[in-house]
Write a structure and sequence with these properties.
Layout (H helix, E strand, L loop, with lengths): L6 E6 L5 E5 L2 E6 L2 H10 L15 E3 L14
Parallel strand pairs: 1-4
Antiparallel strand pairs: 1-2, 2-3
């Protein structure tokens, strides 16, 4: 599909935050939805914060947009 870009939000890292990739390029480590939206904006993608959970453009790896911190072991 022409013009479609692959956005991947990886699992939270052990120290917190989630790596964000667009078309294989790492944009940064997002710690919340606002960070994600800003990274995407800088990459030329306009997605509103309230749209990220349901966007077909974003591949959420493992967990959705509710979790940004590392899983704690008890």
């Amino acid at each position: 599909m022409a013009g479609k870009r692959l956005i991947v939000v990886h699992l939270p890292s052990p120290t917190g935050g989630r790596r964000v990739r667009v078309d294989g390029e790492i944009l940064g480590l997002a710690h919340n939805v606002r960070d994600l939206v800003e990274f995407l904006r800088r990459a030329g993608l306009e997605i509103e914060p309230e749209e990220v959970a349901d966007s077909p453009l974003i591949d959420w790896r493992g967990v959705g947009p509710d979790r940004w911190e590392a899983e704690t072991r008890t």
